[in-house]
Amino acid sequence: MASPALIHYLPRFGVAAAMVSLLGLTGCQINNPASESLVPASGMQPLKGLAQNVSVRRNSQGMPLIESSSFHDALFTLGYVHAGDRISQMVRLRLLAQGRLAELNGVDALESDRLMRTINLKKSADELYKSASPRLKKFFEVYARGVNAYLFRYRDKLPADLAQASYKIEYWKPEDSALIFSLLNFGMSANLQEELNALALAQKVGTDKLPWLMPTYPNEALPASEADKLKGLALGSQLQGLSGVTQALEQVKQLSLPGVTASSDWAIGPQRSRSGKSLLANDIHQPIGVPSAWSYVQIRAPKYQAAGATIAGLPTLFAGFNGKVAWGMSLAMGDNQDVFLEKLKRQGSNLYYMANGKWLPATVRNETFFVKGQRPIREIVYETRHGPLLNSALGSPNALNSSLGLALQTPDLQGDKTLDAFFDLSRAQNSEKASDASREIRAVALNLLYADASHIGWQVTGLYPNRREGLGLFPSPGWEGRYDWEGYADPMLHPYDQDPAQGWLGTANQRTAAYGYGMQLSNSWLSPERSERLAQLAGSGKQDARSMIAMQYDQTTLFAAKLKTMFTAPGMAQPLKQAIAALPAADQAKAREALGRLLGFDGKLSPGSADAALYELFLQESTRQIFLDELGPENSASWQAFVANSNLSYPAVADHLLGREDSPFWDDTRTAQKEDKPAILARTLAAAISAGDSLMGSDHKAWQWGKLHQYLWRNASGQTVRGPVMAGGDHTTLNTAAYNLAGTNFAVTQIPAMRMIIDFGQVEPMMGQNSTGQSSNPASPHYIDGIDPWLKGQYISFPMQPQNFDKTYGKTRLTLVPGK
Hints:
Blueprint: H1 14-18, H2 23-26, E1 43-47, E2 54-58, E3 64-68, H3 71-98, H4 102-105, H5 110-119, H6 121-131, H7 134-153, H8 160-165, H9 174-187, H10 191-205, H11 210-213, H12 224-228, H13 242-253, E4 262-268, E5 279-287, E6 294-301, E7 304-311, E8 319-321, E9 326-331, E10 338-347, E11 350-355, E12 358-361, E13 363-369, E14 377-383, E15 404-409, H14 418-427, H15 431-438, E16 446-451, E17 456-460, E18 465-467, E19 476-477, E20 485-488, E21 496-498, E22 504-507, H16 529-538, H17 545-552, H18 559-568, H19 573-581, H20 585-600, H21 610-631, H22 637-648, H23 652-658, H24 677-696, H25 705-708, E23 710-714, E24 720-726, E25 750-759, E26 766-770, H26 787-792, E27 796-797, H27 805-809, E28 814-818
Parallel strand pairs: 1-28, 3-6, 10-19
Antiparallel strand pairs: 2-3, 2-28, 4-5, 4-22, 5-25, 6-7, 7-8, 8-9, 9-16, 10-11, 10-15, 11-12, 13-14, 16-17, 17-21, 18-20, 23-24, 25-26, 26-27
Helix pairs in contact: 3-7, 3-9, 5-13, 6-9, 10-13, 10-22, 14-15, 19-24, 20-24, 21-23, 21-24
């Protein structure tokens, strides 16, 4: 029967959902050699490095409770447990961050290695580690010993993927954890890809039309002045290798890169809580796949108690609860990196770049790539005053023969105390201490929310460059110095709030700093509908744990209502009617049906909704009808760049649907006449019905959004391990189920991979869920056993009171004892 710890679930899922059997999920590994790689759930194991005995208990989903008599032993055990659960993930992420994945995966990983070696995350990781306090370095050292205890004990019993690769795993070093943090930070950076895509789009349509394709936010002026800095540059002939750099970056993004690609967090103050005490909720979004990058852990030691979400390889709780304070995070969408176009010239074997009228020698860095099954490859990486030349990542002698190069500038992290600050946050005993710790987090750009029983707060973290000119949205000419950085914004200018009168705080990757605010936070935001829906729900009535769950599973989009307003606006209703009448007879009927149904659509994107299917068909067809004639064909670099940007920030299709009547993209360049917005909308309405007929048949009432839109979990090798399962929602709903808005299908690409709720009014405030499982090892019974509870809205409790541990974790335990 179901574990008693699975006590929280949505009322609409009913008792049957709560009673789902977990016996089939726990599995049996008898006579399975692969199970030898797993750390047992019971018994006793001696480990050198422990001072005293440590207990490890597991809940029904394999999430560990570590009980120790010292924090030293708790950290050691955390390293051991992380490695036991996720050593494959840890090894691959470390190799990815080092630019050494080809040593394990062979030549297929060489392009991603070249890019990562060029970007050189080791530099930022070294800066972070050197800047950390002696206390923090000691923590990382102890954690590394725990990881190495697993690697030594299981050196001949590693998970199948590592054992079959015949790769000799290096022991874990404390600096490796800082490297994983730098990789996590890199995974949160969207604007690098946007800037590169902007160049591909400018190569196709020119700089005059570029701003229409990269709007910053609804009802804001297009970034025309930002595009002006690219005018006069022959981006086609002078800039070579752009597509190669973009492809390498895309490959890196697909290699299970950890990060917070989107996310939501909100806190409810006591005045809006049913119990009179605060609540906090957090969900971290990730590309759908197995394993999720995140896993849960709970630690209880004499001077430390906390539970929360971790990345294996890091002894850090990024979101969690310590019995007094809860904290969560979402992506701040901060733009703290810039691409600079550099004028280059070759002189013999040397490379020079232009800076303020002078040719300066590029800095040379020699790199050697060891590729499985091949001889070592030696290549040169060049750097300018702004940073490494991304062209170096192409691995071709001719990659830097063009007259323009691409240099990447990232923040200087010398003296940064972010690693210490996260630890201090996890120990904070009240909201004031949490606020103090959050202000010290500089290396990563987050919306960090925190709460204690009586107070709530929000702090934007990160390092944000002061640019002499420009927004940093598009690449900047690097030879003049006009767009250079001059230090960083004063942290006192970072947006924050505490105990607002409205009684709640929340972020969902929306614009959090008004246009023209005293510092440049970003110009790349996601669509506002999730944050608007959050405001609608959080600001309505009293909240409790059940309403917070309902918010996390909400599938209502507010963009549908905005579409209705556009369709019925005085300047649109009659012209659209006339445009529909001008269509061929068969298309007229389709367009009228589509318009009528969209005007009656309530915005609920449930899997079984026929109107939701039509609504999403209309959105995807809009993208094609408006833009494909000028940006296509679909396999072109320009269209792929447009598709990618549509998923990274506020999309041009939404911007055009809600306004931009004067956009040049309304005209279909394939026809002799000049089309306007009503004409293209009429075509799109008819095309949406035709697409639905092709995909789901002519019985329009039988259409279902979930037949088009499905969850499919694949592992790192691309093999399907679960699904398809019908999905609801989209990129604009709190229960996010994003798909490629400008793509060729509706397959779910991104989900809330980790959810957490803390209700200070409950005896045990914290509950959470993982979208896949605790382990990255397919031999584990906890490889994908989190999927069913995630689908059914079931949460698992993380008790802080020892008398409640048995209910969640049971009495079975693994005892780790000091080894000789």
